[in-house]
Specification:
The chain has one domain (2-390): Porin. By secondary structure, it is mainly beta. Helices cover 8% and strands 51% of the residues.
C-alpha cells in the first residue's frame, strides 16, 4: 500500500504547488492525460499532434471508449492502477483595454492578472464494454470546485463501435474543435462546445461518425405565462455527423433547444444552434474553418430576436520534426443581426500563440491577443504566458 500513498502525496504536492500561480484567463485549459500513455506505454504523439489537440488516432481512441482496437480492459487490479491524472496551469498576463466614445478622449487602462487552474480527471474502461469519464475543476473567481464531466458509456451495443450509449454530464462538441482541448490560452469567441446533461447515442462506421442526444432543457424556471414552468426536463435534442474526406474530417452539428418566451401567444420558442467545421491539411500544419449560427427567435417579445453568425479560421503548425515547438493563429468574427431594439454589432478576436513542449507532460506558451467590440467601441490588447503540467 506504500506506492499508492506516495502517488497520492505527489498529486497533492503538485496541486499545492500549482494552485497559487496560474492566470485567470487560462481556466479550462486542459493538457493531454498521462493516465492513457502510462497505461499503454505509447508516446503522447500517438494521439496528439500538438498537445492537447487530438489527431485522427486520438479521436478514434476516444470514440472506442478509451480503448485500442481489440483491447478489452477490466477493473483496476489495485488502487495504483486507477487511471487518474492531474492537469494544472500557471502563468501571468497583462491587458490594455482602450475605449472610444464620440466626443470624448480615448480612455486607456492597464490591467494585470494572476490566478490558478487545476483539474482532476479519471477516465477509462470497466468490464470491457463500459467506459467512463469524471472530472473536477477549480473555478477561480468563485473559489470553488465544480464538476463539468461525469458520464458512463456502454460500448459496442452494435459491434466494433457501431453504436454506443452514453449517459450523464458531458460536452457536446466536434472532437477536433473543442474548448477543453484548445492549443491557445485564450478561449474561443465562438460557442464551439455546449454542456449536455442527459443521454447520447453515438457510433462509427466506415468513414462516418455520428451522434444524437436527448438532454435537459435550459428553460427558465419562473415566468408569467404558465403556472407550471418547465425546469430540468429532458426535452432538447442535438444531432452530429462527421465524414472523413480524403483524410480530413468534415462535421456538422444541430442543437434544438426549447426556450421560454414572455409572449402571451407562446409558451416556448426554440433556440437553434447550427455549426459546420472541417480540419484540413497534413498533420504538421492544419487549418480549421468553422461557421456557427446561434439563433434565438422573438425573446422576450416580438421583434426582439437575437441572431449571431460566428466565423472562425484557425491554423496550428508544428515548427520542428520533434514536435516540440508549435504556433497557433486564430481569427474569429461574431456578427449580431439588428432587431427592434438593438442595432447590428460585431466582435472580432485575433490570437497568436507560441508553445513548446518541455517534456511529454509539461508545456509552456506565450500569447498575444486582440479583441475588438463595436458596442461599445473597445479594443483590448493582451499578452500572456502559461506553464502547464500534467501528472
Amino acid at each position: 500500500m506504500q506506492a499508492p500513498r506516495v502517488r497520492a502525496r505527489r498529486i497533492l504536492g503538485l496541486a499545492i504547488l500549482i494552485t497559487p500561480l496560474a492566470l485567470v484567463r487560462i481556466a479550462g485549459v486542459a493538457g493531454g492525460l498521462p493516465m492513457f500513455g502510462g497505461r499503454s506505454g505509447a508516446a503522447c504523439s500517438r494521439c496528439h499532434g500538438v498537445t492537447p489537440e487530438l489527431n485522427d488516432a486520438g479521436i478514434a481512441f476516444l470514440q472506442r471508449g478509451y480503448r485500442e482496437p481489440g483491447e478489452h480492459a477490466g477493473l483496476p487490479r489495485s488502487l495504483r492502477d486507477l487511471p487518474i491524472s492531474v492537469v494544472g496551469s500557471a502563468g501571468a498576463g497583462i491587458s490594455r483595454p482602450r475605449t472610444f466614445v464620440a466626443g470624448a478622449p480615448e480612455h486607456i487602462t492597464t490591467e494585470s492578472v494572476t490566478g490558478s487552474s487545476i483539474a482532476l480527471h479519471a477516465a477509462g474502461t470497466l468490464t470491457g464494454r463500459l467506459s467512463y469519464h469524471f472530472d473536477l475543476d477549480t473555478v477561480h473567481h468563485e473559489e470553488e470546485i465544480v464538476n463539468h464531466v461525469a458520464f458512463a458509456q456502454f460500448d459496442d451495443v452494435l459491434r466494433n463501435g457501431g453504436l454506443n450509449v452514453r449517459g450523464g454530464r458531458f460536452d457536446a462538441e466536434l472532437p477536433f474543435l473543442s474548448s477543453e482541448r484548445r492549443t491557445t490560452i485564450r478561449d474561443y469567441l465562438s460557442p464551439v462546445t455546449f454542456q449536455a446533461r442527459g443521454f447520447e447515442l453515438n457510433g462509427a462506421a466506415a468513414a462516418w461518425t455520428y451522434a444524437a442526444g436527448l438532454i435537459e432543457s435550459d428553460r427558465h424556471v419562473t415566468g408569467p405565462n404558465t403556472t407550471a414552468r418547465i425546469g430540468d426536463q429532458i426535452e432538447d435534442t442535438y444531432y452530429r455527423v462527421t465524414r472523413d474526406v480524403g483524410g480530413n474530417p468534415v462535421a456538422a452539428q444541430m442543437l434544438f433547444d426549447k426556450q421560454d418566451s414572455d409572449m402571451i401567444t407562446h409558451t416556448w420558442l426554440q433556440h437553434i444552434q447550427a455549426r459546420l467545421a472541417a480540419r484540413l491539411g497534413p498533420p504538421r500544419w492544419t487549418v480549421t474553418p468553422s461557421y456557427i449560427l446561434d439563433r434565438f427567435d422573438d425573446r422576450p417579445a416580438a421583434g426582439i430576436h437575437e441572431h449571431h453568425h460566428y466565423f472562425m479560421l484557425e491554423s496550428v503548425t508544428q515548427l520542428d520534426t520533434r514536435r516540440l515547438w508549435s504556433v497557433t493563429a486564430r481569427g474569429e468574427y461574431d456578427y449580431r443581426v439588428a432587431n427592434a431594439v438593438d442595432a447590428e454589432s460585431d466582435r472580432r478576436l485575433g490570437v497568436l500563440t507560441l508553445a513548446r513542449s518541455v517534456t511529454p507532460y509539461a508545456r509552456i506558451a506565450a500569447e498575444w491577443s486582440r479583441e475588438q467590440d463595436t458596442t461599445p467601441h473597445r479594443i483590448d490588447d493582451a499578452l500572456g504566458a502559461m506553464l502547464e503540467l500534467s501528472y
